[in-house]
Amino acid sequence: MRIGIAALFAALLPIAAASAQEPKSISVIGDSFVFRSGWDCAGTGLDPAGCLDLKVDSSFASHLAYPYSWTTQPEFNVVGMHGVGGSTCFLRDGDSGLVQRLQGLSGTYTYGGEDKVAVMIGINDVIGYNQTPAQTAACLKDSWAVIANTHNATPVAFTYPPINASVWPGKTTEEALTARAALNMAIRSAVTEFNAAQRALGKKEVEFIVLDNTYNPTTGTSDGVHPNPTGAQTIARYIYWKYH
Prior knowledge:
- The protein is α/β, with parallel strands linked by helices and 244 residues long.
- It has one domain (21-242): Rossmann fold (3-Layer(aba) Sandwich), CATH 3.40.50.
- It is 43% helix and 11% strand.
- It contains nine helices and five strands.
- The two termini are 39 Å apart.
- The relative contact order is 0.16.
């Protein structure tokens, strides 16, 4: 029996429609990487709106929906971007700390049933507030537990992207590089330990994205540390390929 082209096409339509999926929803929480990248607009000639646009363009979170020019359908529905400049995992003056912000105690962030919550925390704890990498990694595990077990979302963890300078007062570039390397090693161990414990309990595990070598910090950052728009988009593309 011969089937006409029109009939065949009509028969395939439900299959094609069924294969189309809504983009996963994601929120991002952390430090200045989340909502800006350390741009001081003084002397640039930008008005406040233009300066804000530059800061948003310098956030990897702002590119998660459309990391490439050809991603005409959004990859993620970005439902929240909550960054606190200089934020640490631990409580300090002016910041309730990552875990408390995730628990909603600060009143500045609410969750809306996201599939994933990504955490980008810098090396501020280690280089600026005398925490060991192991202490910061333990704090990160506590934050992933809130995401997975309280909010029932999948945590997404990152290592810290490349740097080639220090922006921390009184700290040398060598000290910054040492802190970054030590924290990234501790994060790797924390992911392994967290996932083993979650797996044993049948609970959500953290998804891990390595950003160690995402870009050359000379061309990918604004100051040797904070991503510029090119670096931010590169980070978003690393995240894109994690899910493809």
